[in-house]
Amino acid sequence: MDPNATYSAEIPHLLYMVFQLMFAIITVAIIASPFAERVNFPVFCIFISIWLIIVYSPIAHWVWGDGGWLKTLGALDFAGGTVVHINVGFAALAVALVIGPRKGYKKEPMVASNIPYVLLGTGLLWVGWFGFNGGSALASNGTAVLALFNTHLAASGAALVWMLMEYFRTSKFSTVGLASGALAGLVAVTPAAGFVEPWAALILGVVSSVVCFYMISLRSKSKVDESLDAISIHGTGGIIGAILTGIFATIASSGLILGNVGQVWIQIVGVIVTISYSFGVTYALAWLLNKIWGFRVPQEIEYIGLDISLHGEKC
Q1: Cβ neighbours of residue 255 under 8 Å, at least 6 residues apart?
Q2: How does residue 302 score in pLDDT terms, banded at 50, 70 and 90?
Q3: What distances in angstroms separate CA 52 from CA 65, 69, 92, 233, 308, one per listed residue?
Q4: Is residue 8 part of a domain?
């Protein structure tokens, strides 16, 4: 490989490859949601290795790759609302349905064990998202700055709205609620970050916060057990962001507010195709691996905890 080869006038090809690998690995981190506390680690490693090749990579190529059919169709996804968030949200749902809930789910309290770590993680994600979205401009320019500012605005608005909704429901403000709202805003603005004006980014954050808030309530009443709420925040927020991008896009593209009704339909096609492919192929893969090796650890190991029983470590 020639280290001096360039992907564009601004960046080396090797740098672009590393940047794309970042998207792939963060997607894997999110799909860990339905595996938490109940799955054999080696089988998880086999699953994600295959999943990246047969699920993530095709969708990434369809949306971002030269000759990708969704890209050719005109689908807009600035930084991964479809490729990462819708994809992983419905993949996580498929895995959760195959594996089943943790022992004691809905019978024993399963709340966040360390609130400071939740906030620390949220802060790291929030700052990292600036590189996630701003870097997708593939240059140090006005588009990158716009994406960065839109990212911050959407997350801030969504966090505030989530806290207010939680207060009206429980008469309490919670730090976990703030973190959840910020994440919902970050997810929703991801496909739109470089395509919309700041006022539209704020709307995306607020709408995503409201819908994801009620989606978590619905999910919590079901038997679907996934600790990161990937379907409720990443999947749902990704759908909202992708469709609203088709409405509010005014920069380097035109959405519904500029009279381009077709863009909304293109975005909906991208959403439906991603959901169908991701859920269907992931379910088949998880079902097959579960039949061959079995995902679940024995019940006694699950109660002891995987950190101790599988890794010999204590958090």
Answers
A1: 195, 245, 246, 247, 248, 249, 263, 264
A2: confident
A3: 16, 19, 13, 21, 28
A4: no
Closest Cα partner for 23 from 85, 67, 75, 71? 85
CATH number for the domain spanning 284: value is 1.10.3430.10
Which are the contacts of 200, defined by CB distance < 8 A and separation ≥ 6?
192, 244, 248, 250
At residue 305, the pLDDT reads 74
Give the pair of three-digit tokens for residue 209. 């916060």
Within-domain flag for 47: yes
Domain hosting 289: range is: 13-309
Cβ neighbours, 10 Å, residue 162: 30
- What is the total count of domains within the chain? 1
Beta bridge partners of 39: 296
What does the alpha-carbon distance between residue 212 and residue 161 come to, in Å, rounded to a whole number? Answer: 11
Residue 1 placed within a domain = no
108 in any annotated domain: yes
Q: For the chain, what is the mean pLDDT?
A: 91
Q: How many other CB atoms sit within 10 Å of the CB of residue 8? A: 10
* Alpha carbons within 13 A on the beta-carbon side of 190: 31
Q: To 10 degrees, the CA torsion angle through 187, 223, 95, 133? A: 0
**Residue 248 CB contacts under 8 Å (≥ 6 apart), including other chains:** 192, 195, 196, 197, 200, 203, 204, 255, 256, 257
CB of 185 closer than 8 Å to CB of 209: yes
pLDDT tens-digit series, residues 112-122? 678 888 899 99
Residue 58 tokens, joined: 């095709």
pLDDT band at 110 (very low <50, low <70, confident <90, very high): low
Q: Are 274 and 87 in contact (CB under 8 A)?
A: yes
Q: What is the pLDDT of residues 132-191, one digit of tens each?
A: 999 999 988 999 999 999 999 999 999 999 999 999 998 988 999 999 999 999 999 999
